[in-house]
Structures are given as structure tokens and as C-alpha cells.
From TrEMBL:
The lineage of its organism: Bacteria, Bacillati, Chloroflexota, Chloroflexia, Chloroflexales. Its cofactor is Mg(2+). Coiled coil: none annotated. This is Ribonuclease VapC. Keywords: Hydrolase, Magnesium, Metal-binding, Nuclease, Toxin, Toxin-antitoxin system. GO terms for molecular function: hydrolase activity; magnesium ion binding; RNA nuclease activity; toxin activity. Toxic component of a toxin-antitoxin (TA) system. An RNase. Residues 6-126 form the PIN domain. InterPro entries: PIN-like_dom_sf, PIN_dom, Type_II_TA_system_RNase, VapC_family. Its EC number is 3.1.-.-. The keyword Metal-binding applies. The gene is vapC.
Length: 139
């Protein structure tokens, strides 16, 4: 099996920082990790209204400095994936938050599995998503 690149959802990064066992296992086992610029924006927004903004920003920068971690920015190609995700969910009657559609579109574009605790990602066709190392085939 080819190595799996894992994109982290916002709640996955948060779980990792809180020492959640599944998050730690995935982050240790995945050969490479990706954060969407949307996730970084959500994290920074949360930091800005929290009491540990400077510390959280520093820890995020340290995480992003790892050679196993990369950032995926949104571009016009991502927008095409977003439109497909939006259309599919609308036809299914399964709306999800807008930022999550962008995160899913970014994961689909990059060919990444998505690590998230949000079950609504399961409604997105073609997206490999899970909340454990087993779900993401990292065992």
C-alpha cells in the first residue's frame, strides 16, 4: 500500500494538542501531514479569542516547521472541487459548514485522507475520512 498523506481538520489538530490517543497515533504514524489554509485560519481565529494566543501560535508554528508537515493553500483548482462537493451535498440534502466543504475540497484535490471527528464528512463522495489510525489505514 502506498504511504498515506493525512490532512488534519481543525478538531484533529486540537485533539492532538490535547493529547487525544487517536490523534497522537495518527500524527505519529502518518508519513506526511497537511493542513489546509482554511484550517490554519480557523485555528488562528480560535487562538485570537482564547487566553493563550501567543503560546498557541508558537506551538502551531513549531508543528508547521516539521519536515513532515505542509500547508495546502486554496486556488482556482480547489474551487472546482468545492463546487462539486457543494453540488453533491445539495443534491443529497446533506449540507455541511462552508469551511468544511473547502477543507474536503482541498483534501480531494491533494489526494489526502482527512482526519476529522466530524461525521458529516462521510457524506462526501470519494473522500477518505476517519477519526482513528484504523479508519485511515495507518495500522
Amino acid at each position: 500500500m502506498a504511504p498515506i498523506t493525512v490532512m488534519l481538520d481543525t478538531n484533529a489538530y486540537t485533539a492532538f494538542k490535547l493529547g487525544h490517543a487517536d490523534a497522537l497515533a495518527i500524527i505519529q504514524r502518518a508519513p506526511s501531514l497537511v493542513l489546509s489554509s482554511i484550517v490554519i485560519g480557523e485555528l488562528l481565529a480560535g487562538f485570537a479569542v482564547g487566553s493563550r494566543e501567543a503560546q498557541n501560535r508558537t506551538e502551531l508554528q513549531q508543528f508547521l516547521a516539521s519536515p513532515r508537515v505542509s500547508i495546502r493553500s486554496i486556488d482556482d483548482h480547489t474551487a472546482q472541487y468545492y463546487a462539486r462537493v457543494y453540488r453533491s451535498l445539495k443534491h443529497k440534502g446533506k449540507p455541511i459548514p462552508t469551511n468544511d466543504m473547502w477543507i474536503a475540497a482541498s483534501a480531494l484535490q491533494a489526494g489526502c485522507a482527512l482526519f476529522s471527528f466530524d461525521g458529516h464528512f462521510q457524506h462526501i463522495d470519494g473522500l477518505v475520512v476517519g477519526a482513528s489510525a484504523t479508519d485511515l489505514l495507518l495500522t
